[in-house]
Amino acid sequence: MLVQLYQYKHEEVQFDDNRTTGESQTEDAVNPDADDYFGAEMDEFDVETWDTVEYEGDPIQRRSVTIDGVTAVSVLQDADEGDPGLPGRTIQIRMEGGNESLEGAEIVDVQDEAPG
Fold it and tell me: Is the pTM of this model over 0.70?
């Protein structure tokens, strides 16, 4: 199966002298334009990209995770609920090589890879 998830975490705050407590970072500060910052486009790098989104009035970070070769997906009911300030739950992905748990995740899409 092919599984697409969103995983969430709190915004990574970088304090400076011009920012007041409680003030949200802007999208430009968190995700500056790659060409201006690195001199190259993000497609040229193999990096994890987190986007800033709003959840219950607060900025949080979200990334899209796509995993191929999944044999089973479980939403763990007895796992620690995680951070109540974030959407999602702990989701366990089973693959041939073992299990992987993603905290603060939501299932976006699951597709069966039917032969054909």
Answer: no
| Separation CA 72–CA 75 (nearest Å) | 10
Secondary structure (H, E, C), the chain: CEEEEEEEEECCCCCCCCCCCCCCCCHHHHCCCHHHHHCCCHHHCCCCCCEEEEECCEEEEEEEEEEECEEEEEECCCCCCCCCCCCCEEEEEEECCEEEEEEEEEEEEEECCCCC
pLDDT tens track for 66-92? 999 999 999 877 656 667 789 999 999
Q: Are 14 and 32 in contact (CB under 8 A)?
A: no
In terms of Cα–Cα distance, which of 9, 96, 98 is closest to 48?
A: 9
